[in-house]
Amino acid sequence: MVFLLAPVIVAFLAKALFKSPLPPGLWPALALMLLGCSMVIGSKAMAAGSHPKNAALAGSSPGLPAGAGMTLWADRAEEAWLCIAIFGEERGSWLCNLEAEKETTEGDGDVGSGTGNSVGKKAKNWKKKKPKHDKGGLGARDALGIGLSFLGALGLASFMTTVQRARGVVSDQTVLWCNFLTQLPICFTLTFVLEHDKFPMLLHLGLVEYAEVFAMAAGVNWFANWIQQMCIRNLGAPQAAAFLPVRLLGSLAASYPLLNEGLVGPLQWGGAFLLLAAVSWYLVQQKKAADLGSRSTAALMAVEAEAH
């Protein structure tokens, strides 16, 4: 939620630096978008929806008791199948922050029987590790995360305004390289300080895992930043930043087939609808403003033509 303040910061920076009027309808649209995002994220965080699945996840439904692996911090391994399937059980348990809950053994024959055939199959149930501050309230890592979120929102706003300001001065490739070389030491330092105990796991990754990480960094990240820069330079930082809350809809659409997570309950569906309606209304306002500007320009040109 903190990161969603980036559009507001971009709007203030653009107005202060460029001295240009903001797009019409920006503030009402941003307010509605943030409200819709708050409804979705808040409902998911507190499991406050009225759908039975949410109540089961919260462990508060009398009809659906929350069994093992059904709390907000616990998911079975099959619900994290993507991580386990890609990285394997050993590495996936670390990457997904899972721990073995129990181990059962099923056999079709007695061990040491006369036939010498014994079939054993081990099935593990997994659950996510409890956070260290699960007794309630915010911990030190939560405060650090919120602070980093504010810095991230400010950094994104600065990046978007810089890209708009540097249009025609530097190329897109130059901006991409500057962005990458800036992120590299910052991300490495933060990761080393906060997660230094997990660095040895990198030594045990195989070629496939390294290829997947490289594809994500060099492919998805590079392509996404390149598209984002094109949008900023063509639309301007305020208008491009106004669509940042729409990322929530994209993440929800991607999480359903991959993680089997979707919208649950009227609050989440209402927030998504409000977000979509706010974006649609904002686009209509921009279309009206563009049409009005085109008519004004055409009328001015006609007057100048008659004068000559």
UniProtKB/TrEMBL annotation:
<keyword id="KW-0472">Membrane</keyword>
<protein>
    <recommendedName>
        <fullName>WAT1-related protein</fullName>
    </recommendedName>
</protein>
<keyword id="KW-0812">Transmembrane</keyword>
<feature type="compositionally biased region" description="Basic residues">
    <location>
        <begin position="121"/>
        <end position="133"/>
    </location>
</feature>
<keyword id="KW-1133">Transmembrane helix</keyword>
<feature type="transmembrane region" description="Helical">
    <location>
        <begin position="26"/>
        <end position="47"/>
    </location>
</feature>
<feature type="transmembrane region" description="Helical">
    <location>
        <begin position="174"/>
        <end position="194"/>
    </location>
</feature>
<feature type="transmembrane region" description="Helical">
    <location>
        <begin position="201"/>
        <end position="224"/>
    </location>
</feature>
<feature type="transmembrane region" description="Helical">
    <location>
        <begin position="267"/>
        <end position="284"/>
    </location>
</feature>
<feature type="region of interest" description="Disordered">
    <location>
        <begin position="104"/>
        <end position="136"/>
    </location>
</feature>
<feature type="transmembrane region" description="Helical">
    <location>
        <begin position="138"/>
        <end position="162"/>
    </location>
</feature>
